[in-house]
Amino acid sequence: MTLLDVAELERSFGSIRALDGATFSVERGELVGIIGPNGAGKTTLFNCVSGVLDSDAGTVTFDGTDITDVEPYELARRGMVRTFQQTRELSTMSVGDNMLLPTPDHPGERAHHAILRTEATQSREREAHERAEELLDLFDLETMVDEYAGALSGGQRKLLELARALMLDPDLLLLDEPFAGVNPTLTRDIAAHIESLNDDGLTLVIIEHELETLTDLVDRLIVLTNGSVLTTGTPAEILEDQRVIDAYLGS
Ligand SMILES: Nc1ncnc2c1ncn2[C@@H]1O[C@H](COP(=O)(O)OP(=O)(O)OP(=O)(O)O)[C@@H](O)[C@H]1O
Ligand SMILES: [Mg+2]
């Protein structure tokens, strides 16, 4: 079953056509990589899919519903969460508090009695705290819980960003360069976490330049060049595709 369908997506910045008819889909349960030269439009693609940027044309369908240009907050509520190439932790806030930032409200609950609302809120807060603790444990960040996020290494920041995205309990997770600037040991850790999340049923799309790690990890690669999809296939197929080699050499 198709979870994400992107059709003919377009987005320009002045005269730069960052997205030029990008079209692809992702099946539920897939672990997909997106590669392409610098400036190919990969981040813009995530920005448009996740509602961070409005697209100029084209459609994005998530789980059968048209979500083109729906706000990121609303998409997170519906199960689509993304991370950023430049991590967005709040450095003067503790690691633990960073984890609690994205917890969505659960609107639509009509608690007329203040006391009920308070209890519901408290129970949600308790659940969020427990989940945050669980995730920090899982990602070996538990000893950092009271440290400022700014004290983390680049790799730990990527881990925190991943852990924080998981607070929203997504069905689809979009990761923009999760291995960039991460040392080899942490890279292996992050890759192992991604693999086990996918084994547990999470669908992931990962933009990455670090091809060695990525090709080991993913079921399928999508190659983006000049704002559109050049080709898609298994890592083995893609790495020996002459058009892909040319696209990289040409950049
Ligand atoms: N906010 C913006 N304003 C103007 N131009 C932009 C903006 N965002 C992206 N671009 C341009 O759009 C094109 C695609 O950029 P994008 O960041 O999507 O590429 P990318 O594939 O993610 O590259 P990289 O691998 O370096 O991260 C580039 O030419 C870039 O300069
Ligand atoms: Mg990018």
Secondary structure: elements and pairs:
Layout: E1 2-13, E2 16-27, E3 31-35, H1 42-49, E4 57-62, E5 65-66, H2 72-78, E6 80-82, H3 95-100, H4 114-138, H5 154-166, E7 172-176, H6 184-199, E8 203-207, H7 211-217, E9 220-225, E10 228-233, H8 235-239, H9 242-249
Parallel strand pairs: 3-8, 3-9, 6-7, 7-8
Antiparallel strand pairs: 1-2, 1-4, 4-5, 9-10
This protein binds adenosine-5'-triphosphate and magnesium ion (MG).
Regions with pLDDT < 50 over 5+ consecutive residues?
106-111
What is the CATH topology assignment? Rossmann fold
* Portion of residues within helices: 25-40%
How much of the polypeptide forms β-strand, as a percent range?
15-25%
Mean pLDDT: 91
Shape: globular
Instruction: Give the SSE order as H and E letters.
Output: EEEHEEHEHHHEHEHEEHH
* CATH homologous superfamily designation: P-loop containing nucleotide triphosphate hydrolases
- Counting helices, strands and paired strands, the structural category is alpha/beta
Order of strands in the sheet with most strands:
6-7-8-3-9-10
What is the count of distinct domains? 1
